[in-house]
Amino acid sequence: MLRDITIGQYYPANSPIHSLDPRVKLLGTMVFLISLFVNDTVYGYIIATVFLAVCIKVSKVPFKYMVKGLKAILFLLVFSAIFTVFFTDGKVLFELGFIKITDNGLIRGAKVIVRLIYLIMGSSLMTLTTTPTDIADGLEKAFRPLSYIKVPVHDVAMMMSIAFRFIPILTEETDKIMKAQMARGADFETGNFLKRAKGMIPLIVPLVVSAVKRAMDLATAMEARCYRGGDGRTKMKPLKYKGRDYTAYIILAVYLGTMILVEILL
Q1: What is the band of 40 on the pLDDT scale with cuts at 50, 70, 90?
Q2: In whole angstroms, how far apart are CA 234 and each of 190, 229, 230, 231, 238?
Q3: Tell me, what's the pLDDT at 28?
Q4: How far is CA 1 from CA 4, 76, 92, 120, 165, in A?
Q5: What one-character DSSP code corresponds to residue 148?
Q6: Residue 119 and residue 115: Cα distance in Å, rounded?
Q7: 252 near 28, Cβ under 8 Å?
Q8: Distance set, CA 233 to CA 23, 201, 223, 227, 261 (Å)
Q9: d(CA 176, CA 165)
Q10: What is the chain's Cα-based Rg?
Q11: How far is CA 150 from the centre of its chain?
Q12: Coil, strand or helix: which one is 245?
């Protein structure tokens, strides 16, 4: 399942979205996620769908990458939909014992599925078009004012950057360990839930050991290079806004304003 996670992976391409300032993409992702909860109308979902589809098209990221990331949350999608459909009041359409399916439940279940799908796809689009280094620089630059109240902005941005970098590394490591254990006779797919969960132990233990070892090696390397945080450090490529970034801000403002206006009017 880790192989299907797209959040944290970078897809290199020459597109307008790739060339945007990371601060614009971070804010754009937040605006898109907020808009999914600000507007709860059919027209709002249509606008969000068009906006997301245009962003994916402009980013030149293959659609299969976006769909691939949904496999990791398939269980969450199904569970959320079933829970919402069965436990929402409304006009009963079907009833079997304690199980009741209502019209409001079906509508809310569909909305929950769409929101979760768009949450994952929107977040994945940001990481697929932004390198971990740029994400860390963007976070540090965007939240720099918090450093005046003693918030360790640089440290938080560095930790997030390292976490994003570890995702593809752990994915590759998981694949290697899984193939090695399967060659030794391990079974990860057959049997009931308890048996499969128990069968994951030969995979989880060496993966955790490998992750801890990599973290210790990274800490030793940073300490050997006398790394002391963000005070006094300079950037090889300092972030500067360009014309396309201001254009993107205007587009985001128009999009969010439209979503709010549609919600108020309809």
Answers
A1: confident
A2: 53, 11, 8, 9, 8
A3: 93
A4: 5, 13, 37, 15, 18
A5: G
A6: 6
A7: yes
A8: 20, 43, 16, 10, 44
A9: 18
A10: 22
A11: 28
A12: helix
Treating both helix axes as pointing N-terminal to C-terminal, what angle do 74-86 and 103-128 enclose, rounded to 10 degrees? 160
User: What letter represents residue 212's amino acid?
Assistant: V
**pTM value surpassing 0.85:** no
Token output for 92? 């009963």
Indicate whether 68 pLDDT > 80.
no
| CA dist list (Å): 50 to 44, 54, 138, 240 | 10, 6, 27, 29
SS3 60: coil
CA 4 to CA 66: how far, in whole Å?
Answer: 10
Residue pointed to by tokens 């399942």: 1
